[in-house]
Every structure is written in C-alpha cells, then in structure tokens.
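Lab notes, practical 5.
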Amino acid sequence: MATRILIGLILVAMSAPVLAGVSGKGELGLVVARGNSETETGNVRFELNYERERWSNESIITAVYGRDSGQTNNSRWVLSNNTNYDLSEISYLVGALRYDRDRFSSFTYQSTVAVGYGHRLIRTERHRLKAEIGPGFRFARLRETDESENEAILRGFLNYRWQVSDTTQLTNRFLVESGSDNTFLENTLGLSVAVNSRVSLKTGFSVRHNTEVDPGRKKTDTLTTVNLVYNFGGD
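Output from the prediction step:
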C-alpha cells in the first residue's frame, strides 16, 4: 500500500505545476524474475524540498517491498522530515523527525524527534558537506514482546555531495541515533548520472545497523538499488 501511494505522489509531482521555492525528485526501481525462481522487488523514494528566506524543509518518504515465490521477504517504509533555520551562511538550527516501520526487524516501529545545531563545513562548486548534532528522543515498540522502549538519544548526521562532472553526482548520507538501549546507524551512498535536465539514472547502496536485536535476527541490513529518477522544480 505504501509503495502504491508513493508511486501516485511521483506521478502527481511530474504533472503538477511547481510552486516557487519548491523542488524535489521521485525515484522508482523494480526487478521481476520468472522461471526457476519467482521474485519481485521494488523500491520507491520521494523527496520534497522547500526554501524561503532563512527557512528550508526536506521531506523524504522511502518504501522497499520484496516477494520470493509468493512470500513477502522485505517490507519497509520510512518517513523523515528536517526543518532548518539559518543563523548565518554556514550555521543553522535543525529540527528532525523520523518514523521507521520494518516488518522484518526487531522493532515494530522506531520514531525519533530531535533538535540540534548544523554547520556547513564545505561549500565549493564541486563539494558540499554539512554536519548536524543534537539531543532527541526515540519511541519504539519491540516486536517480540510488544513492549514500548522509549529513551533519550543523541542524533548525528553528515550529508556530503560531490559534483563529479556536469552530469555525474556522488552523494553520501550518514545518520546515527544513539541511546542507552539501542544505537541505530544508517549510511546511504548514491551515484547518479543525468540523462537530461529532468531524468537521471541512480545506483545506491545503503547499510542499516541496530546494536540491539532479538535472538536469531541480524544486526545489519544492506540494500543495493538501481533507480530511474525524475527531478522537478529548482528552476
């Protein structure tokens, strides 16, 4: 259901007029295999950005779904929202929200809210790097016992972008949410090549790690994707 909603959002974004200050992108990847094995894997990502004077906002929704021989083997969707207020050209305040629901993890869901300080460490024509740090709180529900696990956390975030050439871009996003009960880490690496001003091809590799999981479950998950990307706004 989440995947269908995201695909609908992407189609609406492609056809709707774009408001001033609004930009974004929609990504879609799908792999279907038939024969000795029957597998279906899809991933969708929708990003919406808004900038106005000192304020900026980034909303991202991602969904991953997989089936093997009729059995669901992957189902996850994540919603995040970051709001920034510039203090200067290089420093800003940040408010961050994240909701993570993974059918095959040790947590039914993990939801975090955090505030913090951000600094733009590198701002050149080719390279951009910014860092954020601040306190927050995590609300989680354990799948095995259905008990709540709520705790204070420290959130850290690094966002790097390298404009390799006029058509090629490398990005890396690293997130850590550390608490006394569990520390969540996620690193997402992406390489995109523009086909034209609106469409690009993107390969991605993400690693997700929880320090505390149920017995029999792995602490680390990886995901490799190849997506078609449509960019809108930003003119």
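Observations recorded by the TA: The domain at 48-57+81-233 is CATH 2.40.160.40 (Porin). The chain has a mean pLDDT of 89.
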